[in-house]
């Protein structure tokens, strides 16, 4: 058994870890103590002599050495900011994030001889680092526990009950969950959870979402990184019901697809700056009973188009994917025009980002360096194309965000016209890389995702 405690300084990792190790009959590893042992000097001295970069390198070595260890591991506060550390800690382990309010952390670590990591006052540094590390903490954790008003023994009790599978839902919630799983056609998932209470769940919510490649990709990634997780589909016409089921499951992450990317936002506790600006969420991270919304679609659009920075772009569509595309293109300093079947919708989207707008019939290919198609047209079973080869010209870049089928009618028309083509699988790959990091804390290379989708 491998139990990992992560979190900021002062959240009780070392004290709770020793109690846990004693109760579970496991060895206890404190990564900071192991770093000092390896360096032959205390951590403040490491910082003074060699700086933080050297300390992080030693930390990386120590955590790598514990990859296959059985025991209770307490990490340093910044350890999970390195995704490579997270991959080693998560390998056949269960990760608990210990949290506490900034003022409690400040009170607990007051008087420490550890050097500051910024030029800020101790209290302000804590608030700043907690904000900076928030996504890393939430992603790396399987379970979040607030230690602010609990004794170390009480926190250890909670973790022991979690490990033994004794912190299940109430009988009423269990009945509701079983009924919903049956309605969703997911009774097998309920059986999996009955057999393995430690199983964590992720899934994609949409209507439809049967076409999604996310279950294939994620379940392969979970196996690759030694994670006790399962990814499934939540296809249902009402996003509120999907969110309700998510709360009844040991759910860690939810991918959100059409038509719920905007509607899901009203059910979330927090929404990232990028998702708020776009007005759409495609990634939900759950920890400590709270739902955190993000948008990774815009990164999936941006990455393949960096070479077109400063060009003229046309976005076809005015929904959530189109908003992410406009946001991405604006970060590349592109001159953007939004065209949609409903000109009023195009006007609303363009008005948010200061773009030109119009109806689809106003498309003039010669005016664009880049065309991003962001409507569902072309997705099976509607495999049409909004544009023909005669609408395009050689030298343009055509990016079709639809990825099922892998080669759409628009991509074929663009090739016929001599355009550079970017299939929707590229958008899927790059957004999935960021989504997986947000949900698990692990960085995976785009090449690995492409290989797993092949």
UniProtKB/TrEMBL annotation:
Database matches in InterPro entries: Aminoacid_DH-like_N_sf, NAD(P)-bd_dom_sf, P-loop_NTPase, SDH_C, Shikimate/glucono_kinase, Shikimate_DH, Shikimate_DH-bd_N, Shikimate_DH_fam
Pathway the protein contributes to: Metabolic intermediate biosynthesis; chorismate biosynthesis; chorismate from D-erythrose 4-phosphate and phosphoenolpyruvate: step 5/7; Metabolic intermediate biosynthesis; chorismate biosynthesis; chorismate from D-erythrose 4-phosphate and phosphoenolpyruvate: step 4/7
Gene from which this protein is expressed: aroE
Domain spans labelled SDH C-terminal: 424-451
Catalytic residue list: 261 (proton acceptor)
Domain Shikimate dehydrogenase substrate binding N-terminal: 206-284
An annotated GO BP: chorismate biosynthetic process
PROSITE patterns given in the database record: SHIKIMATE_KINASE (PS01128)
Quaternary context: Homodimer.
Descriptive protein name: Shikimate dehydrogenase (NADP(+))
Species in which this protein is naturally found: Methanoculleus thermophilus
Function in brief: Involved in the biosynthesis of the chorismate, which leads to the biosynthesis of aromatic amino acids. Catalyzes the reversible NADPH linked reduction of 3-dehydroshikimate (DHSA) to yield shikimate (SA).
Lineage, uppermost ranks: Archaea, Methanobacteriati, Methanobacteriota, Stenosarchaea group, Methanomicrobia
Recorded GO MF terms: ATP binding; NADP binding; shikimate 3-dehydrogenase (NADP+) activity; shikimate kinase activity
CDD domains in the record: NAD_bind_Shikimate_DH, SK
Catalytic activity, as annotated: shikimate + ATP = 3-phosphoshikimate + ADP + H(+); shikimate + NADP(+) = 3-dehydroshikimate + NADPH + H(+)
